[in-house]
Amino acid sequence: MRITALAGGVGGARFLRGLRRHLAQHPTPGSSDEPVSLTVIGNTGDDITLFGLRVCPDIDTLLYTLGGGVHEEQGWGRADETHSLSDELAALGAEPQWFTLGDKDFATHVYRSQLLAQGVPLSQVVARLSERWGLGQQGVTLLPMTDTPVETHVVIDDGGDQRAIHFQEWWVRHRAAVPAKRFVVAGLDRATAGPGVLEAIREADVVLLPPSNPVVSIGIILGVPGVRDALRGTRAPVVGVSPLIDGRPVRGHADVCLQAIGVAATSEAVAGLYADFLDAWLVSPDDPMQSRPGLHVEHRPLLMGSLDAAADLAGAALARATRLGPGRTTA
Ligand code: GDP
Ligand code: CA
User: Fold this and answer.
1) Both 177 and 206 in a single domain?
2) What's the gap in Å between 31 CA and the centre of ligand 2?
């Protein structure tokens, strides 16, 4: 069975780690007895160049989390990290100082930047980093959504003038507290889907949308030319998990992002962003949303407070997908 998932950073990574745990305990989902392969399409809109190094926050969160090296409480960055390099950069007055990079994490960015400078495409860099983290041994293939450099920018009001700043500056430095007018993804219009990305959607048996940010994680991947059409066209059932509980994101500022694009912070409105390809949607037990023709709504606890809870949630999404089966015969 081929499972394909679209993922941002922490929400996506925790869900997928839960899915791996679930599959380790239930290796043959549904009636299938073939081995399961999981292809993850990662958001690269968060990517940024800092100190001359290319940093891919969401891809690295996926690598570190699935590879067992993540800082558990933070949800991103490396466990047992030190910060000598950034302390020294700060002593030099090097900017920016609002983005935390640990020493081990720096090694990832140095290695990636070295390979990119040699002309190695990002997808191949990610393949090498995936080897380092043992993803292949888990049956996991991580694909960046595109090899074309793209960057999400946020248009803000700056004393009456509109100005675009990098998404990371808005999210990390300003904690999304500066009102956003809109999101612009520099480079996305001329980007092409990364190697294997469209095939992974078209040829999947199951497509899962973890509870990643619908605007700046999943929304960016959906903007890669061809991805949305592939999701509309695939025979695989598409099952998603809401990132909102009681109208609030579990962490981060998805509600602020939704507001900026004029969408209500409800599971129903988020499902509306995926309406053209979504077959089933998992929402929290007290969510008022109900099934309707073409969309099966399932109520269940959505909090991934532990690996077991994440495994239960991912297992429920997968079970729903296998019950729907191929051919999009939903509801
Ligand atoms: P980021 O790139 O690190 O911001 O991570 P993602 O885009 O992958 O995921 C962020 C989203 O995950 C946020 O909107 C959160 O609401 C959601 N999220 C985080 N933890 C949980 C959880 O335990 N359950 C659910 N349902 N959503 C979660
Ligand atoms: Ca992100």
Assistant:
1) no
2) 35
